[in-house]
Specification:
Helix content: 55-70%
Number of helices: 20
Structural class: mainly alpha
Strand order of the largest sheet: 1-4
Family: Belongs to the nucleobase:cation symporter-2 (NCS2) (TC 2.A.40) family. Azg-like subfamily.
Protein name: NCS2 family permease
Largest sheet: 2 strands, antiparallel
InterPro entries: Azg-like, Azg-like_bact_archaea, NCS2
Membrane topology: Multi-pass membrane protein
Order of helices and strands: HHHHEHHHHEEHHHHHHEHHHHHH
Subcellular location: Cell membrane
Length: 442
Amino acid sequence: MEKFFKLNEKGSNVKTELIAGLTTFLAMAYILGVNPAVLADAGMDKASVFLATAISAGVASIIMGLVANYPVALASGMGVNALFAYTICGQMGLSWAAALSAVFISGVIFILISVTGVRKAIINAIPVQLKLAIGAGIGFFIAFVGLKNAGIIVASPSTFVTIGNLTDPTVLLAIVGLLITIALVIKNVPAAVFVGMVITAVIGIILGFMGMAGMPTLPEHFISFDFELQAAGACFSGISELFANPFQAFVVIFSFLFVDFFDTAGTLVAIGNRIGLINDKGELENAEQALLADAVGTVFGAVLGTSTVTSFVESSSGVGVGGRTGLTACTSGICFLLAVFLSPLILSTVTNAVTAPALIVVGIMMAQQLKGIDWDDMIFAAAGFVTVIMMILMYSISNGIACGFIVYTIAMIAAGKAKEVHPTVWALMIIFVLYFATPYIM
């Protein structure tokens, strides 16, 4: 493993990587419960989606670890699953089989542009200052997700968001877990984020035994052998329905392409910045392999019967405890495969209150990238600020990146530096504008 994953070269070891992989898995485990619930609203069978989600996440994460040597795990993405269920199947009226066909085709396109180097060229064309803003923005984004999942902040009709019910036991558990995790990080405790999650879960289980409602619990049966992939192969039967309306098919496939591309780009850039995978030229090392692994995961997931499989920003939780190589991703992948059998245990003990502190603390760590932005230069200050704030307020990594690119390009024009804008950036700005305009064109 030392030779294959280059552990010493990356400043890591087997123990650290295994803990990092387990931490990443625990931070992502919520997808095993959430994704089936979301896709069930599109008419899909929950049990089938659970299996497809776990298996595709496991295989894709292992491919990422072995092929790209990145500490990045993959699974069916949040946001894109909502696009699948509520927009494409709900508003547009397509069946879930047709939607799976669109996911499959978008994955095949991703494989083609990954092999040809187009995806790498686009990511490398992102200015270094914007890369830092993307990484920091994702930090704020996942911290916001953690705060929301924990109930520390909630929706408000007058102010959009407000403070949650601090007397709720689950909210209090998350707050206690957050304070414990911050203290562990400050004390430089090894694997502090993971240890914080374990302590939070144990506290919750104890409180649950004492009769406190909503706490993590131990299930009656730890193992399940319910295996049935009802939607496997349905992506092929839905192709004719998808292309019955060619323009609609284009919009659907483009939407999947856009969200997955820039969610993945943002995640890889953020983690690349964190562990030193961005070289002196601002280019992401081993980008082709990482992007290819991501694309293969999407195709494989579609064939099994789940929405777009993408690189998960929660992988930063594993990086936060020291994960630096593909062994972290492989460990997470094995955990996802084992989850097929251990679903009762995982779904009952790894609650939002347990994962939220990890997401918030890792968000704090990632936000430190803001110090690398030249805030005295209004071009980068404006583009960076817009990237971060829109990523949070629009609740979308890809939308935040799009807004940042548009502002950056306009700012460069205003500064008389239009000739310094990379041709790829010009092309992307046009694509971003079209993306935002598409719902109104339809």
